[in-house]
Amino acid sequence: MQSIAHALNSHHREKQEYCPDHGQYTAIYTWLGDRWVGGGCPHCLDAKRQRQRREDMEQRRQQRTQTMIRLAGIPGRYQDASFEAFDAEADAAVRVREACRRYAETFPERLQNGTNLILSGGVGTGKTHLGCAIARYVIAAHQRQARYATVSDAVRQVRRTYDRTSEQTEQDVFDWLAGLPLLVLDEVGAQTGSEHERMVLFEIFNRRYSDMRPTVVISNLGCQDLTQILGERVIDRLLEDGTALAFTWASYRSGKR
5: buried, middle or exposed (CB in 10 Å: 19+, 13-18, 0-12)? Predict the structure, then answer.
């Protein structure tokens, strides 16, 4: 036993060293191969390990964010949509932008309460931009999956399940759409108004309402016209503890012609 202890001790040395940041400390050196290694300040080494852990966590967070944004279905035109990039010239536009920002910043509370948001107004007023900015913020800041889709997208996904070669069922699609932490549904009211489309919309809104999942609804129609399209029951559920924001200013697109 003494020979083993002697062999171990002969490969380790302790020496008093000085660290400019932490002062005097006992350095431990180990004989490795043909030289002594180690001897670093334990406080500095611990700080380095913590810094590396933080960097690794941040890298994993960025990778998760990139993956979720890639799966979010955000159109190419709005891949970089943000609140800062929103061109708010009118006072009303500033108020709407800040309301959307608050919705995104407080999303964990919205998710807990199932709070919805309706963005309605004329074409070219920035509704889709702000809807995508909300989705991107929710993903990046809160690490929650968000999905942008038009009504046509949702209807097509459901219809694909009717093909005999489809690996998904209609129920699978509705489960997925209902389960997303945030769904940004665009072009509501622009559809043809068929019975099947109304059924798809009702199922989506009804399931998300029951599961308390927030939905951002984007439409060129006002609330009164939306009520005629979706029905009072759906509108009441969307606005239960929810907010409707009206985009009342002129189209940005017409001003750039």
Answer: exposed
Query: Can you give the pLDDT of all 257 residues of the chain as single tens digits?
Result: 444 444 445 688 898 999 999 999 999 999 888 888 988 899 999 999 999 999 999 899 899 999 999 999 999 999 999 999 998 888 999 999 999 999 999 999 999 999 999 999 999 999 999 999 999 999 999 999 999 999 999 999 999 999 999 999 999 999 999 999 999 999 998 766 678 888 899 999 999 999 999 999 999 988 888 888 888 888 998 998 789 999 998 887 655 43
User: What Rg value do the Cα atoms of the chain yield, rounded?
Assistant: 28
The tokens describing 1, both together, are 């036993």
Strand (E) or helix (H) holding 25? strand 23-32
- Decide: 57 and 65 in contact? Cβ < 8 Å: no
Name the residue with tokens 């490969």: 11
Beta carbons of 247 and 120 less than 8 angstroms apart:
yes
Q: Which residues pair with 218 in a beta bridge?
A: 119
Helix ranges (H only) for the chain are 2-10, 42-70, 91-105, 107-113, 127-142, 151-160, 170-179, 195-210, 223-230, 232-239, 252-255
